[in-house]
Amino acid sequence: MQLVVEAAGPAGAKPVAWLSFQPGGAISVGLRDRTFISPAFHSRSFLWNMYNRVTTEYLIPHTPDALIQVLNPHLTFHPPIYFHLRQNAKEELFAGIADVRIMLEMDSEVPWVRFTSGPYESLPTSTGPRLGIPTDSLQLELPGPEFSIGVGVNFVTRKESNHKCSRLIEHDGLTVEVFAEVRPLQQASLSWYHQS
Prior knowledge:
Layout: E1 2-9, E2 12-21, E3 27-31, E4 35-37, E5 43-45, E6 55-61, E7 68-70, E8 73-78, E9 82-87, E10 92-97, H1 100-106, E11 109-116, E12 135-141, E13 147-156, E14 166-171, E15 174-184, E16 189-195
Parallel strand pairs: 1-12, 5-10
Antiparallel strand pairs: 1-2, 2-3, 3-8, 4-7, 6-16, 8-9, 9-10, 11-13, 11-16, 13-15, 14-15
């Protein structure tokens, strides 16, 4: 199953991000906007401590000054503990381990992905759902074209979302909260939280 987060504005609905729920429990979050990284960016986080967790936020801004363009960046959680960021079939840019199920026993919410799009007008138009994959959409109504869209993804234990435009999806025993919100016009950025 795939969930597409769309921004509905004057030019119609434009896809912003997608979530793919795969057999075996894997969950991928992908972006329809490009982003940029430093040529030296590679991060590994293969230590995890249940009692003394430290949360790190990794931020990738949408700026050509960072030199290397990343197309279709997507983060994937492979149960039981593996996370990574890559573009299409290329090498991993980030990889780490964390036990989400244990964290959810200690906390009711584990933040994961935060994305802010560029201007609505700059977003690519939809190419339609992938053939053969059941697709649902979460649509955010924009008051006009001069806005950006924020998308967040959390692992949660609650049964109701705290956000107006959101969806709770249970997959392989975990509940994922996806939410979208209108943001002031800004450059695109992608960030994710990793606890080690």
